[in-house]
Amino acid sequence: MHQRRNGKLKSNDDMYGNLESGRRSAPSSGRGMSSHETNANIMESQNNDRIAELSEQVARLKGLTVDIGNEVRDQNRLLDNMGEGFSSVGDMLSGSLMRIGTMLESGGAKHMCYLVGFVVFVMVFLYWLVR
């Protein structure tokens, strides 16, 4: 392949050979950039684009970590409240068990039959609800 410049034929090998070797071919207007400068400018713009992409990704990751931190704080608060609730339920159950024990010691067989009947009724009712 050949190009015609100023009436002269110039082969592509001469043109691209100069670009690959880093030499500047004789510009017709006298104000051209060398291939090294052109490559440096291209690489610089590519680097700037990649830096912009990375900064966007870092901003997204920062937002995500802030959201995760907020969610962790909320979950910890919920778990603390649940722990307090379970401890109060545990206190109520231990008090109930102490009263049942006192009732069984003093009340006799009649109260035991009521207790067993109540437990059986609750189990049947729960079975009926689940089914």
Automatic annotation (TrEMBL):
Residues 36-47 have a biased composition (Polar residues). Coiled coil: none annotated. The lineage of its organism: Eukaryota, Sar, Stramenopiles, Ochrophyta, Bacillariophyta. Keywords: Golgi apparatus, Membrane, Protein transport, Transmembrane, Transmembrane helix, Transport. Residues 24-35 have a biased composition (Low complexity). Gene3D superfamilies: 1.20.5.110. It comes from the Eukaryota. GO terms for biological process: protein transport. PROSITE patterns: T_SNARE. GO terms for cellular component: Golgi membrane. It is a single-pass type IV membrane protein. This is t-SNARE coiled-coil homology domain-containing protein. Residues 41-103 form the T-SNARE coiled-coil homology domain. The chain crosses the membrane at residues 112-130. Residues 1-47 are annotated as: Disordered. It is found in: Endomembrane system; Golgi apparatus membrane.
